[in-house]
Amino acid sequence: MYSQFAYFYDDLTSDIDYGERIDYLLSVFDQFGSHPKTVLDIACGTGSVSHELAKRGVDVIGLDISEEMLSKAAEKTLGQNVMLLCQDMCEIDLYGTVEGAVCVLDSINHITDHRKLLKFFRRLSLFIEPGGILIFDVNTPYKHESILGDNIFVLDRDDLYLVWTNRFHKRTSIVDITLDFFVKKGEVYERFSEEIKERAYSFDEISMIIKQSGFSLLGCFDDLSFHKPKKNSERIVFAVRKI
């Protein structure tokens, strides 16, 4: 899963300011009186979040299902206090507990089954210390319908041609994403494809799952802020505490 995507992910997300995002996440922890020394980075991908957390003195466990993503993460976090685990986020199994956890950049949306999402939160609650805080974000139903929708996006560079095709299912708010990469190899292009699904959950759906999983909702915010989400918010950040 996400095998080919791993080799392009950092290049395609170069517009993300990870330093700014980690400063924000730490400020959310601080907002609720938490200063975790150990943090679980769920769906850590190529390790950019883990890397930035470790730079700030946090001991990190990075978890991802993709061996290829973790290989990139290992290179990025070399020499830092970062442990990497290859696990499905719905099957988390740690050796002990952590003081806090983060799951960001719409990783939650990759869980497209309501029952699996409940399983994820319940499983995670076993490994966060009582009083510990989880911060996660989600793409909103508005973004899925109005921004991603049935749209096609194209990236055209000298070394790479990317076609991003979406198919939106209104009833479930699931977007089927097809990424077709055409990578220049000498005088020809080599094609790689990746299929991804994302589901947007309503605030009520997420709130109910949180309550059923041993967490209490502390707050939810528009992305990178402490403002309340708006109708056209594309990403919402949730902070929840392990009861």
Task: List the topology elements.
Blueprint: H1 9-12, H2 18-31, E1 38-42, H3 48-55, E2 59-64, H4 67-76, E3 82-86, E4 98-103, H5 114-125, E5 128-139, H6 141-148, E6 152-156, E7 160-169, E8 174-185, E9 188-199, H7 203-212, E10 215-222, E11 235-242
Parallel strand pairs: 1-2, 1-4, 2-3, 4-5
Antiparallel strand pairs: 5-11, 6-7, 7-8, 8-9, 10-11
Task: Explain how this protein is built.
With 243 residues, the chain is an alpha/beta fold. 27% of the residues lie in helices and 37% in strands. It contains 7 helices and 11 strands. It has helices at residues 9-12, 18-31, 48-55, 67-76, 114-125, 141-148, 203-212; strands at 38-42, 59-64, 82-86, 98-103, 128-139, 152-156, 160-169, 174-185, 188-199, 215-222, 235-242. The strands form 2 sheets. Strands 3-2-1-4-5-11-10 form a 7-stranded mixed beta sheet, sandwiched between helices. Strands 6-7-8-9 form a 4-stranded antiparallel beta sheet, with helices on one face. Helix 2 (18-31) crosses helix 3. The longest helix is centred in the first third of the chain and has 14 residues, at 18-31. The two termini are 33 Å apart. The mean pLDDT is 96.
